[in-house]
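Predict the assembly for these two chains.
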Amino acid sequence: METAYLIETVIKVVVILLIFSALAGIGTYFERKILAFMQRRLGPMNVGPYGLLQVAADGVKLFTKEDIIPTNVVAPIFKIAPVITAATAFMAAAAIPFLPQFTLFGYTVHPIVADINIGILYILGIMGVGLYGPLLGGMASANKFSLLSAARGAAVFISYEVITGLSILAPIMMVGSLSLIDFNEYQSGGIGDWIVWSQPVAFVLFWIAAFAETGRTPFHLIANDHEIIDGFGTEYSGMRWGLFFIGEYANMFFISFVIPLLFLGGYGDGSILGALGLLAKMSFFFFFFLWSRAAWPDVRPDQLMWLCWKVLMPLAVINVVITGFVMMF
Amino acid sequence: MFEAIAFYLFAFLTISMFFIAVTTSQALHALTALAAGMIFISAFFFILGADFLGAIQIVVYSGAVMALYAFGMMFFDTTRDIKEKKGNSAIVFGLSTLAAILIVVIFAAPMVSGTIEALYPVVEGAGNTQQVGLVLFTKYLVPFEVAAVMLLVAMVAGIVLAGKKMDLSLTLMSDDEVMKLKNEQNKKVLL
């Protein structure tokens, strides 16, 4: 029993690592294609059919490029920062149920690495640790723009963690559990049972905060676009820069799994249709990240802070209070 | 067996991280080691089966050390070593050793006496998170509320200290008003 469990866990970890590392690469292809179509371009076309092998070409480039450590940086911190981003992104995946449980050759497989009973808290906490990557990368680089980007990134992340926490508090009160599997069971009765109908405010707030947590475009302040410089990643090259990239895309995929699991019924009753439904919802939320990048400019930092503290946080608090009153009486 | 391996691994990691945090003269090294140590401590909660407290340890301390980074950014050039003013190292060493021994004795003394009794025993069937809630809102309700009031006081004080011109919002002002404000400030600087 113990050995079987150990082997199963190791296999699951390896499978998730491989699938999502590959997906992160393919995600960049999707992003370039979708942005291109929305801007009436073709995007990558030359490498392979429809530019599909562009991912492989980029991978070869990233892996073989020289890894430069500039002279004045704090070398150990500079080297470890991208690893933190990538590692924490994958650690957060440990508590996400990617599919309903299924039977393979007479052996029941639970597609979740660790069904801990504090799942969502663990996921958000570890994703919060992930922001140490950009922060340390920016601070360790001997570059003023990197430092500015790190400071701005830290301010955004800390502010929006408040929104994330407060917005999911109301659904957690309704479900009475922190495990994503319990969230799924609560909503397994069909579309009418989805939490989004009873908690629309929480859903929208969490969705907005997801953009800040992953650092995607309306809130992409960690890149200093107006200085035409890549923020904390300016001094990085080769695979270390690639690790930042993998971490960002893996985070996008994982948060795209978490939003449907929390609010939109997850995999439903656990049938094949439900599993496909979860994948479809995940694809929509991933697509929405790219869509909003094509459609919206970045907001100013002061607008972002104004939005967070004066609009979203009071809304989230009021939502929690109203939910509490409704549940009591 | 896994528990023992995990315990010794994380004990070693935690102690070495805090050792780096104390001994290094590089602000960035010290802060990063502190953050890493705080996160490694959560492993002990997970080993003991207190999942909720472990996750809280990660959430709270990763945010708290982040605030320290902000101070580090403001006060130091974090890419350079800091020249520390070193006093009498014998006194520092002696006092810190004494303090460490005292803390161990204070916490170990009740255990040695062997008359500990759990007044609020574990509720059967309640989950990890629920147990924390049960104790927090029955036995420790007053300290909990006092802590909440103290945090509120600190928050109000912080807002009062930082809140000059809080009624002005650059976001809500029109461009003309912003330019006017800018000109006024420039005038003050010129005078």
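Chain B touches chain A through 29 residues (CB under 8 Å). The first helix of chain B runs from residue 2 to 23.
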